[in-house]
Amino acid sequence: MHIPANPIGPVAPQGAEALQSSAPAGAAAPSAPQAPAETRAAESAVLSPHAADFAVAQRALEQTDAVRWERVAELRRRMAEGTYRVDSEAVAEALLGRR
């Protein structure tokens, strides 16, 4: 899986920033008073598809258990020794959501 360096991508200016960036050259940019954080709840941002995918992946990651490194080491050791056996019935049950 490849995660780009900036998964969010470019963000279009919103609110006062958009007004300032669209003012003609030499024109004074309008001065907008800064509202307290509580009153800025109506502001919004538009996310790129990559950012939306990133947010979904991050929520899924937050809901998973941490990697059990001891278990990983044990399984690697058993595979290297040739003693690891897959229970195909258990795998099928898990894939079908019966476990």
Describe the structure.
It is built from 4 helices and no strands. With 99 residues, the protein is mainly alpha-helical. The chain has a domain at 68-99. The longest helix has 14 residues, at 49-62. The protein is elongated and about 65 Å long.
Tally of DSSP helical segments:
4
General shape:
elongated
Q: Helicity range of the residues?
A: 40-55%
Main β-sheet: number of strands, strand sense, barrel status?
none
Mean pLDDT: 75
What is the number of E strands? 0
Q: β content, as a range?
A: under 5%
Reading the helices and strands in chain order gives HHHH
Low-confidence stretches: none
Quick recap of the structure?
The protein is an all-alpha fold and 99 residues long. The chain contains four helices and no strands.
Write the layout of secondary structure elements.
Blueprint: H1 16-21, H2 49-62, H3 69-81, H4 88-95
